[in-house]
Amino acid sequence: xxxxxxxxxxVRTFGTYTAVESPVLKSGDTxxxxxxxxxxxxxxxxGVARFNVDVSIDLRRRDGRRxxxxxxTTTLKHEAATQPGTFFFSLGLTLKAGVGVYKAHVRLRDxxxxxxxxxxxxxxxxxxxxxxxxxxxxxxxxxxxSDKPAAPATQPAKPLECxxxxxxxxxxxxxxxxx
Length: 179
Description:
Elements: E1 3-7, E2 16-21, E3 24-26, E4 30-36, E5 42-45, E6 48-61, E7 72-80, E8 89-94, E9 100-110, E10 115-126, E11 134-139, H1 140-145, E12 161-166, E13 171-175
Parallel strand pairs: 3-10
Antiparallel strand pairs: 1-2, 1-4, 2-11, 4-8, 5-6, 6-7, 6-9, 9-10, 10-12, 12-13
C-alpha cells in the first residue's frame, strides 16, 4: 500500500486529498478513507490486470466493544488492459452513533494471495463537528510537476501492518509489506 489514510472529504482525483488525523465529527457525518494500493491487490493474467480486494470496516467504542453487530464489508474490483499507475479507492462510511470516542478498524484482504493490510483510525463523535487538529493537504500531480524538493513531513510515517493467512498452519502472521 502506497497510501492509506483518513481524508477530509470524498476524494475524486488520484493524489489530491487532505489527510486528517483523529477527526471530530457529528452523528450522520461520513468518515472518508482514501487509499493508493500500489501493487497490493493487483494480478495479471490472460492479458488483463485485475484488482480484487475484500474490505471490512469494524467500528468499535473506546472500550473495544463493537458499535455494530458485524463489520461493514464490500469487495473492490477493477479490470484494465494494464495496471494503472494512478489507481486509488475512496470509501465513505456514514456514522450514526452517540457522542463518544471510537475507532474504525479497516481490513483489506487480497482475494488471490490472502495478504492482509490492516489499519485503525481513531475518531470522535460530538454534538457539532470540529475542524481537524492535523490537516495535511496533498496533491500528487503538483508535487510531481514541481522542481522543488518535497517538504519534510510534519509527522513520521507510520508503517502499515501487513498480515498473511498461511493455510498450511491455519494462522495469520505478520509479514513484511510489499512495495
